[in-house]
Amino acid sequence: MTSLPGIALNIIGPILAIVAVAVLTDRRFAPDAKVLSRLVLYVFSPCLVVDSLARSDLQAAEIWQVAAVAALCSAAMLVIGWIIGRVLHFDRTLTSAFLLSVSLINAGNYGLPLSEFAFGKAGLQRAVIFYIVTAVWTNSVGVYLASRGNADGRRALLNVVTMPVLYASLLGLLLNITQVSLPLPLQRTVSLLSQATVPCMLFILGLRLSRTSLKGKLAPLLLSAATRLVLAPLITVPLVGLLGVTGIARQVCIVQAAMPSAVMSSVLATEFGSDAGFASSSILFSTLVSVITLSIVLWLVM
Question: Residue 187 maps to which CATH number?
Answer without folding.
Answer: 1.20.1530.20
